[in-house]
Design a protein that fits this description.
alpha+beta; single chain; globular
C-alpha cells in the first residue's frame, strides 16, 4: 500500500484524514499515485493537476524521502521506500509571498 499525505484543504474536500492508503498496480510513479488517488476520491480530480493536461498545479508540491519531487517526470519511478509503504508520498500546498 502506498501512503499519501494530503494538505488540509484536500482532506476536507475528499472527506478523509491526513493520510490515505492506496493500492497502485504496476510501477509506482507520481502519475500512478495521482491516478489511483483521483479514482478513489473523484472530488480531487482537477485539484492537484489540470483536467486536460494532467500537469501539476502551480501551488502543489510533491515530497518523498526528504526530497522535492515536484519537477521530476510524472512517469519516473519513485523511491522503493515509497513503493513498499515505508515512506509517505506527501502532497503539499505551497505558499507564495514572503
Amino acid at each position: 500500500m502506498i501512503r499519501v499525505v494530503l494538505p488540509f484543504h484536500l482532506q476536507r474536500l475528499a472527506n478523509t484524514g491526513r493520510e490515505v492508503e492506496l493500492q497502485v498496480d504496476g510501477p509506482v510513479t507520481q502519475r500512478s499515485i495521482l491516478d489511483a488517488l483521483e479514482a478513489r476520491y473523484p472530488t480531487l480530480q482537477g485539484t492537484i493537476r489540470d483536467h486536460a493536461t494532467k500537469e501539476r498545479r502551480a501551488f502543489i508540491r510533491f515530497f518523498a524521502c526528504g526530497e522535492d519531487l515536484s519537477l521530476e517526470s510524472p512517469d519516473a519511478a519513485l523511491p522503493e521506500l515509497v513503493a513498499n509503504g515505508t515512506e509517505k508520498f506527501m502532497i503539499v500546498g505551497a505558499m507564495a509571498g514572503g
